[in-house]
Amino acid sequence: MAEHQHGTMDTTVQEKTYSGFLTFVTRFSIALVIFAIFLAVFAS
């Protein structure tokens, strides 16, 4: 069995996934805030 060397793992895929997740969460949160404002203004 090979010895593990700390810091040698390629993490580019994980970094891209995390970046995409943060982008999704940010955009979704902004959309929810806009939707809540829309409801507050026009729903009566």
UniProtKB/TrEMBL annotation:
The chain crosses the membrane at residues 20-43. InterPro entries: Cyt-C_aa3_sf (IPR036596), Cyt_c_oxidase_su4_bac-aa3 (IPR012422). This is Aa3-type cytochrome c oxidase subunit IV. Signal peptide: none annotated. Pfam families: COX4_pro_2. It comes from the Bacteria. It comes from Leisingera aquaemixtae. Residues 4-42 form the Cytochrome c oxidase subunit IV bacterial aa3 type domain. Keywords: Membrane, Transmembrane, Transmembrane helix.
